[in-house]
Design a protein that fits this description.
263 residues, alpha/beta, Rossmann fold, eight-stranded mixed β-sheet, 9 helices, globular
């Protein structure tokens, strides 16, 4: 292990670990890709048409988006994602990193991989005791208790990696969908809205690593057409999860990271 003791003046500048959450379609992805420091790396976890999304970004960006401004990370499994996140040489060129979204990655991608691995292990353990026709759909999709622990540990590793990137001077943004309930109590407080996360430990520890946590909502013009950028609130009234780690007094405004980092 390499240990370094740095002076304050030698610490990297511009780094932050930020969580934004809000309903799908409010403009989180487009506004983040427009305003993140360039060049930036986009890590889409949802099965969307990435080319169309970039075209929307280019349409609404106030400045031209160059070919090398936005890199798109493509991976096939969790191990490849972590290998890329922890590869200093691969990540070095980027000033911003956008993971989009953690909710989908936890609830679909990661849980599916862990469930599949768990099923293969159970099949090996059962051996000849169970024939292929004996396995039910429940066996194929059920996430065991140890499997939930694996998901928690994997996300802890992911957040630790994201934190290291932010401490190296990169602006790291992680998006989430909202969990809409009268009282979302698994975060330790009663919120009406909070990031949608699976697992037992992660929601309780979630706010700790982040410098900012903000709720995003759409803005519309008089004709009812959505305007970019949407509004983000890092303080709120206590009814939804929020956190502000900046130095200024401003706590809400347009979702423009080139401005938010100066608040």
């Amino acid at each position: 292990m390499k240990i370094q003791i740095k002076k304050f003046k030698d610490l990297p500048t511009g780094g932050a670990l930020i969580c934004i959450y809000g309903p799908s379609g409010v403009g989180k992805t487009v506004s983040t890709l427009i305003s993140l420091p360039k060049p930036c790396l986009w890590v889409p976890t949802e099965p969307r048409d990435n080319r169309t999304k970039i075209e929307v970004v280019m349409k609404h960006s106030p400045v031209p988006i160059k070919d090398n401004d936005i890199g798109i990370l493509e991976y096939t499994n969790w191990h490849e994602l972590m290998e890329a996140m922890e590869d200093e040489k691969s990540m070095k060129p980027f000033k911003g990193v956008f993971i989009d979204s953690l909710s989908y990655m936890m609830g679909f991608n990661l849980e599916a991989e862990v469930t599949e691995d768990s099923l293969e292990e159970r099949k090996k353990a059962a051996g000849a005791k169970m024939k292929p026709e004996d396995w039910t759909i429940n066996d194929a999709v059920k996430l065991s208790q140890p499997g939930r622990g694996d998901v928690n540990n994997a996300v802890k590793r992911f957040l630790a990696s994201a934190g290291r990137l932010s401490r190296s001077g990169k602006c790291v943004v992680i998006s989430c969908l909202p969990e809409n309930r009268p009282k979302v109590t698994k975060f330790g407080n009663a919120f009406s809205q909070a990031p949608a996360l699976t697992g037992g430990e992660i929601p309780k520890l979630f706010s700790g690593p982040f410098d900012y946590i903000g709720y995003v909502e759409s803005k519309f013009n008089d004709e009812g057409v959505m305007r970019y950028p949407p509004k983000v609130d890092f303080e709120g009234d206590g009814s939804f999860m929020a956190k502000f780690g900046g130095l200024g007094e401003k706590r809400s405004g347009p979702l423009r990271f080139n401005e938010i980092l100066t608040w």
